[in-house]
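Q: Hi! First time doing this. I have a protein sequence and I read that you can turn it into a structure. Is that right? Here it is:
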Amino acid sequence: MTLLTQWPLAGLRLTTPRLELRLPNPEDLADLAALAADGVHDPAVQPFTVAWTDVTPDERAQSVLQYHWRCWGAWRKEDWELNLAVLRDGVVVGTQGITARDFSVLREVCTGSWLGRTHHHQGLGTEMRAAVLHLAFAGLGAQHAISAAYTHNAASLGVSRKLGYQEDGIERHSVRARPGVLRRLRLTAERWQQHRAVPVGIEGLPGCLPWFGLG
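A: Yes, that's right. Below is the predicted 3D structure, encoded as structure tokens:
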């Protein structure tokens, strides 16, 4: 019996012209933790609803490890969070997540991501989001994909616009003890087809389908 028999997600790979996305191994996790410790956004603003970055560098690093371990341990086909390490030329640059509840019924996913600060403004955010959208729509048969960003997060909102998302309402949250407006965005399968421009390859998906509640 092999690891892939018990945990086929370890064999899942997404590739784009510049990136590889995969379930992180222990070395990848260590690199992700180090990236988080160095910072993933301008500390003057808080782009996340859960302010996990408003702590010390060591605490940020530890939270990354614990979050990935928690998602692995809590995985159920009715409620899953797939968080992939994003590598460029073999170097971990960030992480891209895709989550769903009752996917076999709702056919809807949510996405979230971050990049190390030295890897911002290079178009990588668009490429890695395009990779998991391809997984969702072409690989898993999703009908909708959801994203959200605060009004000041121009980079995330820009990625969504490029990929064809449309406005889907707002939410108000307390961010650093002040009100913040979160803009929800929705992408349908039809609009994904119209706006797809990044070639994406998928390896190792068939054995993973039951883990996503399919097959």
